[in-house]
Design a protein that fits this description.
With about 70 residues, the protein is mainly α. It is built from three helices and no strands. The chain is elongated, with a radius of gyration of 18 Å.
């Protein structure tokens, strides 16, 4: 079975999990609350940007395919 990495990285659940794990590790190693908040916000921001980029790429690809179909007819 082939893994669809684009879909996996576009998952908000994945980015929420990454942020939760990072926060837990930060707390475990004894870093301060301010460090945990900053790193968590960085992860969720990067995740949000990744989801947006992948979603727009998907929409653009579908739009381009429809235009090609219309040009052929």
């Amino acid at each position: 079975m082939k893994i669809n990495w684009r879909r996996k990285f576009a998952s908000r659940k994945l980015w929420a999990l990454v942020a939760a794990v990072a926060t837990s590790v930060i707390v475990l190693v004894g870093a301060g609350e301010d460090v945990a908040v900053k790193i968590t916000s960085l992860i969720t921001t990067v995740g949000g940007v990744a989801v947006y980029i992948l979603a727009e790429a998907h929409v653009d690809a579908k739009s381009g395919a429809k235009e090609e179909d219309q040009d052929v007819n």
